[in-house]
Amino acid sequence: MVTDERMPYAPYPAPTGTAVAAPPIPVASPNGSGPWFLARANLGVLIDTLREDGRTVIGPKVMDGAVVYGEIRSVDELPAGIGDEQSPGHYGLTKGRHRRIFDYAVGPLSPKRWTFPPVVPLNVGRRDGKAVSFEPAPIDPPALAFLGVRACEVAALGIQDRVFLGGPYTDEDYRARRRNALVIAVNCTTAASTCFCTSMGTGPEVRGGYDIALTELDEGFLLRAGTPEGADLVARMPVRGADAGQLFRAAEAVGKVAATMGDPVPTSGLHDRLLAQFDSPRWAKIAERCLSCANCTMVCPTCFCSSVTQRSDLDGEVSTSERVWDFCFTAGFAKVAGGNFRSRPRDRYRQWLTHKFATWVDQFGTFGCVGCGRCIAWCPVGIDIRAELLAIAPPLAVWPETGRPRPVAATPGSYATARIVSVRNETADVTTLTLGDVDAAFLAGEFGQFAMVTVPAFPPVPISISRFGRDTIDLTIRAAGPATASIIGLGPRDEIGIRGPLGTSWPIERAMGHDVVIVTGGIGLAPLRPLLDGLLAQRDRFDSIRLYYGARTPADHLYREELRRWAARGDIDVQLTVDRSSPDWTGPVGVVTHLFDRATWDGSRSLAFVCGPERMMEATVEALEGRGLTPDRIFVTLERHMECGIGLCGHCQTGGLFVCRDGPVFSLTQLGGIFGREGI
Amino acid sequence: MPAVAARPRLRVGIVKMASCDGCQLTLLDLEDELLALASRFEIVEFPEASSLRSAGPYDVLLVEGSISTPDQAAEIVELRRQAKLLVTIGACASYGGIQALRNWSSHDVFRAAVYAHPEYVESLATATPVSEHVKVDAELHGCPISPEQLREVLVSVAVGRRPQIREESVCLECKRLGTVCVMVARGMPCLGPVTQSGCGALCPTFGRGCYGCFGPREQANAASLARTFELEGREGEEVSRLFAGFTGWAGPFRSVIGDFGGPPGMTSGATSPITATTATTATTEGAGDAG
Fold it and tell me: Looking at beta carbons, which residues of chain B come within 8 Å of A106?
């Protein structure tokens, strides 16, 4: 139940799209929020208590071959010993574990049916002579208690809160229904094959937005209160403190469920990947199967669209208006007097999918999907949204498949180790170390991320990862001080301490289908090399690629052999310059921006990635903007003093940003007035 | 009510072609509103309910039934001349109805098998929707039609607006009601996803699949649904039979029936000319949107 008038907007944290294993439940304290233990035989007390409070309990029950939500008057109506099997286009009941109440995955109905009912009266309009009047329908929803809603459903309520209550105009009917509803959630100890809450970052453990959260064990239920109302309710129940064994088994059960789901829909960069595929031939392919019957949208716990219908008397003097569920798949949905904006099923499917996973983010700051899998199971022809997402907007092949990787040894005190496999001198003062025996998290790192690197007795230094190999990573290090010198001085088989991967990355997915301009100087090429590897590995997904690279002298260009190879490919324009020539240099001399001052390309379809000394980046940005690039399409890195690498130590703050955590890659839009300003 | 009473009543005729009369009777099912309707409409032709007859003209003419005989084919042309608005009511008038199944077969073979003296039976080789003969202003679907939709058409004529009839699948009615999908949860074949709503999801609510009596909805991808039925282990003949019901002659359903070998039991004997021509070029309005 939401009591704070300001709060219903976001009682649940926005889905992050990051797969997170369920954290262990901390040991009980006898007071406060729990956890408590409720014996199985006492579950009925919960229902009776809620009913005594005048609440209608909406909970799970078996009807017509499915577990649905409906009014629960007695504990005997709950689906004891019932499980389910779900797959694309199929749903069936099975035998669940003995006496277990919540051993099924989500069924076709969700709390949406009560918070956003299929039909809601809006008003009665009357005409009386020349006068007209409209009498709004009264809003007087019943007090409900949702029993057994899952983490994905709680997250969906949070998303609908943002939709209906989070903007400048609010839906008062929704607000009243929501305010009057208590949420008694259940942590999932089972998952259907259609579930993917782990990918959407919404489950299987409930993490907020509940009054009480239950976890079912063989002998009963662990209870945790999330609000004062929940705590009051628990206080009236025959509970005792949960013991450590119960806590362990509960955490283990939820953790296992998370593991069975894995991460079937990598959401890293999904927004941009999907929007880049507006003209994909796959949309027509899906439309060959899609019935545009709208079942997916109706079973979706977040889909919120509706239409208003009137029913008038024969004289048109009195008419009643109702809001009814309606969705982007129906014929009339995008129709105007002159025609239909989305007449083809392929357009409707694209509207739906891109809304759920991209434009919803723009509107509401979260995905419109919670990973409940209903649209997969209840699609009559079994279209699997997970498969379609992977087909339409596949993660880039060298793009990490598990979302933003969880760094290893994230806390400043703990370091993983890696072994130096080879050492290569790039220039007089720059060396590349190839590291083996690195944690898998590093191999899954993103282009532009960095690591904190150290050896005993020296302060850790932030070093960009300059290549992601199959089982190695490269660090390209300039001897800038004693710490870097000590690392460069190591040889093969020496070990170093390493934490990461950390920070943000070059948004390669946004570059799909665009021209790419990379401008860099000196060692700035190091964090860009993985990006170049990624671009060239999937060359056909990008339009032109241009690399402008300046260095002090010809001998200061990094990766000279690779630069030659890239130039020879013919599908990337490599332009080099130096500040000071040498006898064997035949190329241009001057600052890097001169290289494209004379070029003829148009920046309106380009994305630019810039890394180098701040002065050089300022000049570059000015030149890029002169060519029509807007700040949201120019990405730069900032260098600041970093120590912890995770936004906790405060060293790297600039403006409102932690460069280590929020950067080092930023769009100019993000930086606003920070970029180029001294003393920040 | 003086202003209302001053309005002239609209002349309504209800006529039938080849049909069972169930749709016309739906008008009488609007029991609670009949008196109100009578204040706005003068029913001048309704043989099923009244012996009063009129040759027209009609402000609104409701036509039930398909065109099955030479007489009907001539009559509908004349009726069209007499009607300001011609509205077909029901699966027969709008799609040909169950009797359109004969369009796949040999008319003469059937006639000889059923009647002792087929030479006395004057019927056309095909049973076809009214819209194949004359311009139709609106079609009401269903076997029988929905009283609510009939009311809406009459109200919209009286008020002078467009009828608000939702273009959507039966699934929307099921889901709004909270009915569990019989296809997904019980493996029953159901035409609901490709069928126009209006029936209130009557069949699925009573635990059986929709048989499509309201006909294909806008952009009905019947081909995909048929492939799914087949993938789930149904033979082509069974798939064909599922679509070959009250609205089988409607474009998207007709295509599926053709692709799956024609309606069972209807393909023996001489091929009717219409099977050889029309069915193969059947309108595939929106079938798949694969283009």
Answer: none
Q: Which residues of A touch B194 (CB under 8 A)?
A: 291, 293
Query: Which of A655, A335, A60 lies closest to B219 in space, CA to CA?
Result: A335
CATH architecture of the domain with residue range A508-637:
3-Layer(aba) Sandwich (3.40)
Interface confidence (ipTM) of the complex: 0.87
Residues from chain B that touch A313, judged by Cβ atoms under 8 A, are 36, 155
Q: In this structure, are residues A159 and A366 in contact, taking their beta carbons and an 8 Å threshold?
A: yes
Chain B CA closest to residue A377: B184
The radius of gyration of chain B from alpha carbons, rounded to an integer in Å, stands at 20
pLDDT, tens only, B119-169: 888 899 999 999 999 999 999 999 999 999 999 999 889 888 888 888 899
Low-confidence residues of chain A, pLDDT below 50? 1-30, 398-403
Contact A108/B181, CB-based, under 8 Å? Answer: yes
Q: What is the DSSP letter of B66?
A: B
Q: What pLDDT score does A199 carry?
A: 94
- Closest to A377 measured CA to CA, from A85, A151, A149: A85
DSSP structure string for A273-332: HHHTTTT-THHHHHHHH-----HHHHH-SS---EEEEEEE-TTSSEEEEEEEE--TTSTT
DSSP state of A589: B
Contact criterion met (CB < 8 Å) for B155 and A284: no
Q: Is B180's CB within 8 Å of A63's CB?
A: yes
The tokens describing B273, both together, are: 């000319």
Chain A contact present for B71, CB below 8 A: no
Cβ contacts of A166 within 8 Å, gap of 6 or more: A9, A10, A364
Structure token digits, residue A168: 């400048």
B82, B76 Cβ separation under 8 angstroms:
no
Handedness of CA B62, B141, B208, A301 (dihedral sign): negative
Question: Which pLDDT value is given to residue A680?
Answer: 60
B190, B207, B288 ranked by CB distance to A288: nearest: B288
Which amino acid does the sequence have at A404? R
Contact A316 B286 (CB under 8 A): no
**Residue B288 forms contact with A (CB below 8 Å):** yes
CA distance A137 to A114: 17
Q: Which of A107, A101, A292 has its CA nearest to residue B180?
A: A107
* Cross-chain CB nearest to B172 (options A113, A284, A330): A330
- Confirm if A549 and A641 have CB atoms less than 8 A apart: no
* Residue carrying the six token digits 């469920």: A257
List Cβ<8 Å contacts ≥24 apart for A77-80: A78/A43, A78/A148, A79/A103, A79/A104
As given in the structure block, the two tokens for residue B92 are 């027969």
3 state DSSP class of B224:
helix
Q: Which letter does DSSP use for residue B33 in this model?
A: G
Q: Beta-carbon neighbour count of residue A134 at 10 Å? A: 11
Provide the token pair at A218. 């063989």
Q: Give CA angle at A616 (A613, A620), nearest 5°.
A: 135
Q: What is the DSSP letter of A524?
A: G
B34 interfaces chain A, CB cutoff of 8 Å: no
List chain A domain ranges: 36-117+139-261, 416-502, 508-637
Domains and CATH numbers, chain B: 2-159 (3.40.50.700), 170-281 (no CATH)
What is the amino acid identity at position A644? C
For residue B215, give every residue at least 6 positions away whose Cβ sits within 8 Å of its Cβ, in sequence order, or none. B91, B94, B95, B141, B195, B196, B246, B247, B250, B253
Is A314's CB within 8 Å of B185's CB?
no
pTM: 0.71
Q: What is the fold of A416-502?
A: Elongation Factor Tu (Ef-tu); domain 3 (2.40.30)
